[in-house]
Amino acid sequence: MYPLKFEPILKQTLWGGDKIIPFKHLSESLPNVGESWEISAVEGSESVVANGVDKGYTLPEMVRKYKDELVGEANYARFGNKFPLLVKFIDARLDLSIQVHPGEELAKKRHGELGKNEMWYVVAADKGAKLITGFAEEITPREYKDRVYNGTFAEVLQTSAVEPGDVFYVPAGRVHGIGAGAFVVEIQQTSDITYRIFDYNRKDKDGKPRDLHIGQAMDAINFSDVQDDFRTEYDRTENEPVEVLASPYFTTSVYDMTEEITCDYSELDSFVIFVCVEGACRLTDDARNEVTLHAGETVLLPAAVQEVTIVPEGGRVKLLETYV
């Protein structure tokens, strides 16, 4: 096994912008690319290996082939052949819908799927870019319905101006939305279940209003989810991993590096994903397999990899590390 890179899956959307393709240095000329799915096992959007002897295999095929060697013993026992994480870049030219995701129990009951807990890391932000997360004040389910139908729901939501490096955890049940001008990495459970509450009266490509899920969303929303600021505070320290999220679903750290770092994963029973958000680096594993990672690229280290050395190229590199 060796560090795996995947072909990006580009998604054109009503609200997509023009940042993803140049950020990833791709040759495509697609307009309105809202998302690049970097690592995905979602049915119909399965990532394909781009390097090495397993080039051409889909991620689900890789899990079936290598099992715990790829994902780790505990993860394979827990998830079987279902890869548990989905990683995306998201570029919002316009505001995304205000939405909520179901938790484990509701998602299993309604859809037979995992819940959808996720996080955002802000890569870039235009002037005035905002993220919506949670409530600014507590409301009742009855008030929720009234506000949705009279157009005042956004007034009770917490809106935060953002800048590069900001981190937000978005657990299932938290109402949220990505605002125009925000360019983020989204790390989430492997689930594509979204309950759309408000979509700015937009129409789809066929001129029809986009579906809303106001009733379904009400059962998923945590109505007591109130804070002054939902941003995750963390020490922006150089040349050591800084953990920004430890949840039951995944753990994520930020690496801001100007020097070589060696990571020991001998005690970690999981795959590891690195997302490069700035600069470039060279990764070498304990079997001397080597891969170069540039801004906009993502690599999956199989659980069988025990150690990796990361060497910045060009002075500085900034990475996100995540695992289950």
CATH architecture of the largest domain: Sandwich
Task: Return the average pLDDT rounded to an integer.
Answer: 96
CATH homologous superfamily classification of the largest domain:
Jelly Rolls
Biggest β-sheet: count, sense, barrel? 8 strands, antiparallel
Oligomeric state of the chains present here: single chain
Q: Which structural category do the helix and sheet elements fall into?
A: mainly beta
- Identify low-pLDDT runs: none
CATH topology assignment of the largest domain: Jelly Rolls
Percent in strands: 35-45%
Give the CATH class of the largest domain. Answer: Mainly Beta
Question: Helix content range of the residues, please?
Answer: 10-25%
Explain how this protein is built:
This protein is mainly beta. It folds into 2 domains: 4-220, Sandwich (Jelly Rolls); 242-323, Jelly Rolls (Sandwich), CATH 2.60.120.10. Helix content is 15%, strand content 39%. Strands 1, 15, 16, 17, 18, 19, 20 and 21 form an 8-stranded antiparallel sheet that branches. A 6-stranded antiparallel sheet has the order 2-3-6-13-8-11, with no helix packed on it. It has a 3-stranded antiparallel sheet with strand order 10-9-12, with no helix packed on it. The longest helix is centred in the middle third of the chain and has 10 residues, at 141-150. The protein starts with a strand and ends with a strand.
